[in-house]
């Protein structure tokens, strides 16, 4: 039987970052636990629950943002010392709130990730890992890409210190001292790490990872290599994983995997068989889940899942029954406890309303006085702009700590806005003049009341680069707005990958000139997504990419004074040639550009595009027939006389229309790519074939692959 989980909202603190809420160990079995949480106002709050009310244990003074909160203590003792990362400093508090540690690290950046094991402290800034023992510097490592999380395998089980870094380039890096022991590829950029079962499993070597594109997996980290145990894809297209915990919420004696996602989903995975976990329960909140813990919080003997959301709400999903039966057994009555809670909430609400009125009057008076000073209210925006591999589109997620009024989206490059099922906002488009203002997109999303999170989807065109801007206006007075900018890169649909197929026919672009390693790296960062801003260590670097729309690939290898770019798509090489030469000209650097074009690569790219073209043309034809077929159905009443293919169009009409609506301008994009391929092929030969484009479009309408290849060869 599925357990029933009831939602309880306990308390709201300030905006919280990822992994900043923990439950202190219970004093006895099934006793309630204290909650400790750190927010971006710099306040550490510790509280317990008595009779449904939050009772504070301690609260620190405001300060810098708290980026991480962990529990620690001596090995084999209750882990009840509280450690928080604030800027580049680590502070320690007892469970009563007394500060016993203030450790100023030697990091020049703010701490992004932290893990504590006994006397060992593991800290990470953006690219730097540091290991301290008793606050003394032990080891240091410079990562090739941004570090998102860190943990260490349990020392009592594996008998050595084995730190693991989750890095943005889809890699887990396993360290030994200050050296890289080995690295292991994972299916997406890992955002969070946790010990499997809370203790690393029987061997102590198993870790769970969650990725920014919503995948989960377990990896066994041995002394010589990593062994994948299981992996779960993101079939339901849910948000990225932000937090993970292990706790027996179902009461079956086996710990379940608790997962919190950035779209507000809480998931409970059960290990019914010894192999892969099965999703047993899920629950949707309206904002991202920054931290998740399993324990006993609200009432003795009742387990629950506690989640801390982005805006600072601490919400429990408890196994405690919400309603209790009255003495008569016939009708449900509110308990005395519930009635007193409702009464206290009403009083609190009245006090808040009075306070708001007083403050509003005070503001009105001060704003009209001769010495008035305009004050802009500050608000936090949590944003994420990522490329989705599945449909080659960009997701823009905007989350605000208060309700959003509207979001204006503006772009100086052509973009397609795609439909998002979860989006309930009303969108309206404004006509824009692309010539004087470089405005290609101007759209306003008006949000419904209490919407704090908005998700948009856009698709870019490779070769056209610029800036997408989002003007976010929340429902606060006085009206204020924040502008957030996102770069649309020249090769915006390319995604980093670990390896490529070397057997494909490749075109090569070679650059030589008086440029430094840092300069050519900055050009590659400008052209391609998912490349770390920091110049890589060493003298030479190679990155591999895959085009998420077409499946073509790119290999870029460069060092001081030279760069080599190989791709099976000649249009990719053409875009790189144009952009890199423009960037070099800006810096007054002379480039010696040479290229090697493989004729076979054009046929190969056409063969990759053709199945997509055929499918989209067929879909468009079916959609155009739907209205006529429906009219026939109304007039005739019976459609048995129709051919089976037309009957199937009527049966699948809703799905076909939904798919067509989800992918606007898909066919036009494919036509554009084939046209660009045609122009680029002859551009490298020094021939202008733009006059032959109308003839090419006629052949495309016919959708004949052999005829298309023959046209490319003969032109």
Automatic annotation (TrEMBL):
Biological process per Gene Ontology, one example term: intracellular protein localization
Alphabetized InterPro entries for the sequence: Bardet-Biedl_syndrome_7_prot (IPR016575), BBS7_GAE_dom (IPR056334), BBS7_hairpin (IPR056335), BBS7_pf_dom (IPR056333), Beta-prop_BBS7 (IPR056332), WD40_repeat_dom_sf (IPR036322)
Name by which UniProt lists this protein: BBS7 protein
Residue span(s) of domain BBS7 beta-propeller: 21-319
High-level lineage: Eukaryota, Metazoa, Chordata, Craniata, Vertebrata
Record domain BBS7 platform: where: 494-596
Keyword Coiled coil recorded: yes
SUPFAM superfamilies named in the record: WD40 repeat-like
Domain BBS7 helical hairpin: 599-712
A Pfam entry, by short name: BBS7_pf
This protein's record includes keyword Coiled coil: yes
Limits of the BBS7 GAE domain: 377-486
Native source species: Dasyornis broadbenti (rufous bristle-bird)
Assigned GO CC terms: axoneme; BBSome; ciliary basal body; membrane; neuron projection
Keyword terms of this UniProt record: Coiled coil
Residues forming coiled coils: 335-369
């Amino acid at each position: 039987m599925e357990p029933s989980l009831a939602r309880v909202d306990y308390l709201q603190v300030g905006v919280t970052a990822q992994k900043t809420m923990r439950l202190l160990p219970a004093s006895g079995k099934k006793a309630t636990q204290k909650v400790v949480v750190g927010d971006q106002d710099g306040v550490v709050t510790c509280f317990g629950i008595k009779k449904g009310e939050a009772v504070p244990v301690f609260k620190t003074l405001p300060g810098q943002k708290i980026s991480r909160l962990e529990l620690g203590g001596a090995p084999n003792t209750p882990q009840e010392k509280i450690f928080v990362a604030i800027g580049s400093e680590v502070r320690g508090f007892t469970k009563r709130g007394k500060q016993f540690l203030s450790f100023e690290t030697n990091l020049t950046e703010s701490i992004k990730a932290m893990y504590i094991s006994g006397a060992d402290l593991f800290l990470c800034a953006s690219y730097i890992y540091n290991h301290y023992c008793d606050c003394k510097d032990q080891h240091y490592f410079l990562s090739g890409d941004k570090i998102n999380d860190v943990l260490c395998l349990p020392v009592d089980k594996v008998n050595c210190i084995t730190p693991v870094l989750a890095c943005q380039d889809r890699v887990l890096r396993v360290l030994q001292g200050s050296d890289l022991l080995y690295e292991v590829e994972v299916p997406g950029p890992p955002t969070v790490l946790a010990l499997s079962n809370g203790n690393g499993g029987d061997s102590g070597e198993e870790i769970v990872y969650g990725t920014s594109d919503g995948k989960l997996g377990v990896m066994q980290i041995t002394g010589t290599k990593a062994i994948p145990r299981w992996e779960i894809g993101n079939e339901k297209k849910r948000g990225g994983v932000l937090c993970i915990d292990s706790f027996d919420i179902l009461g079956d004696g086996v710990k379940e995997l608790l997962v919190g996602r950035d779209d507000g989903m809480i998931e409970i995975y059960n290990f019914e068989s010894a192999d892969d976990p099965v999703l047993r329960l899920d629950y949707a909140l309206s904002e991202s889940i920054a931290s998740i813990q399993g324990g006993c919080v609200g009432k003795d003997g009742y387990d629950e899942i506690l989640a801390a959301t982005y805006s600072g709400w601490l919400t429990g999903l408890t196994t405690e029954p919400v309603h209790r039966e009255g003495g008569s057994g016939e009708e449900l009555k509110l308990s005395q406890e519930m009635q007193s809670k409702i009464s206290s909430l009403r009083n609190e609400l009245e006090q808040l309303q009075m306070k708001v009125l007083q403050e509003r009057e005070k503001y009105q008076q001060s704003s009209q006085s001769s010495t008035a000073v305009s004050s802009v209210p500050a608000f936090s925006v949590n944003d994420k702009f990522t490329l989705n591999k599945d449909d080659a589109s960009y997701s823009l997620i905007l989350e605000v700590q208060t309700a959003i009024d509207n979001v204006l989206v503006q772009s100086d490059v052509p973009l397609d806005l795609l439909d998002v099922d979860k989006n309930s906002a009303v969108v309206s488009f404004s006509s824009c003049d692309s010539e004087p203002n470089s405005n290609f997109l101007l759209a306003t999303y008006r949000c419904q009341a209490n919407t704090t999170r908005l998700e948009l989807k856009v698709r870019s065109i490779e070769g056209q680069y610029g800036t997408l801007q989002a003007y976010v206006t929340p429902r606060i007075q006085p009206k204020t707005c924040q502008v957030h900018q996102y770069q649309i890169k020249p090769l915006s649909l390319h995604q980093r990958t670990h390896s490529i197929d070397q057997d494909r026919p490749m075109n090569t672009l070679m650059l030589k000139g008086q440029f430094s390693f840092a300069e050519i790296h900055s050009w590659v960062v400008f052209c391609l997504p998912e490349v770390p801003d920091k110049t890589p260590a060493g003298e030479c670097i190679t990155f591999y990419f895959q085009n998420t729309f077409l499946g073509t690939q790119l290999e870029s290898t460069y060092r001081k004074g030279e760069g080599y770019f190989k791709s099976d798509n000649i249009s990719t090489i053409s875009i790189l040639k144009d952009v890199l030469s423009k960037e070099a000209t800006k810096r007054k650097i002379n480039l010696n550009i040479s290229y090697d074009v493989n004729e076979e690569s054009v046929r190969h790219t056409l063969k990759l595009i053709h199945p997509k073209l055929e499918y989209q043309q067929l879909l468009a034809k079916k959609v155009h027939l739907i209205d006529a077929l429906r009219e026939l159905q109304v007039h005739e009443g019976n459609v048995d006389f129709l051919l089976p293919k037309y009957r199937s169009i009527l049966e699948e009409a809703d799905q076909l229309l939904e798919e067509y609506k989800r992918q606007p301008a898909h066919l036009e994009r494919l036509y554009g790519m084939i046209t660009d391929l045609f122009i680029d092929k002859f551009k490298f030969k020094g021939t202008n074939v733009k006059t032959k484009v109308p003839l090419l479009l006629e052949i495309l309408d016919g959708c004949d692959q052999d005829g298309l290849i023959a046209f490319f060869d003969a032109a």
